[in-house]
Amino acid sequence: MRLGHSDKQTMAGVGIDIGGTKLAGVVIDPSGSVVARVRYATPRNDGEATAKVIVQAAEELLAVARSGNLSVGPIAIAMPGTIDKSNGTVVDSPVLSMHDVPMVEIAQRALGHPVTILHDVKAAAFGELVVGAGIGQADAAYLNLGTGIVSGTYSDQYSYGVEYRTLAAAVPGAYTLETFMGGGTYNINWFVERFSGLDGFAECVRRVASLRSLSAS
């Protein structure tokens, strides 16, 4: 996909979200409109292949933005797991089979462009707060349903308690009060593979297809 050219350079954003089953990426123009999308399946049980797919998606999105004469800021990559944003490292992400992976260094070396990484749920919650359902609210609660299930509350004031875990939010000086974190479908997939010897994801796809064929007959 190519964008229309103009003589004026404008700042665009490139964002990539990688989860347990898919990667989705977008180019957003200065008005906030999505002008390009990519989507890939997440490689299973292969952190190195996952890093390559992330770079591939970023390359494609950068090419689209540049073809439309859009100047792009740092590429934002949202990932599940324990993320060390200051060092650009995926400390541990069982869903992506990554451990101590210097994702920012890998991506910047391949792309020749600034890159930042952050936790996927924090990124999504912050997005809702600034451009979504949380616009104008001092605090907002966010529930994330994906390969895993996480819920928490965004707060601009520090707080602690036995009912939640206090984490740094996506912006300096703010906090995420995490109230629940569960493995969701990732746990189901692990259980099926561990105790049945079957490929959990493939088995789910097979059973869904079987149910669809029965309902159609």
Description:
This protein is an alpha+beta fold and 217 residues long. Among the domains are: 10-121, ATPase, nucleotide binding domain (Nucleotidyltransferase, domain 5); 185-216. Helices cover 33% and strands 34% of the residues. The chain contains five helices and 13 strands. The protein has helices at residues 47-67, 103-111, 120-131, 185-196, 200-216, and strands at 10-18, 22-28, 34-41, 70-72, 75-79, 82-84, 89-93, 98-101, 115-119, 140-145, 149-155, 165-168, 175-182. Strands 1, 2, 3, 4, 5 and 9 form a six-stranded mixed beta sheet that branches. It has a four-stranded antiparallel beta sheet with strand order 10-11-13-12, with helices on one face. Strands 6-7-8 form a three-stranded antiparallel beta sheet, covered by helices on one side. A hairpin with a 3-residue loop joins strand 10 (140-145) and strand 11. Helix 1 packs across helix 2. The longest helix has 21 residues, at 47-67. It is globular and about 50 Å long.
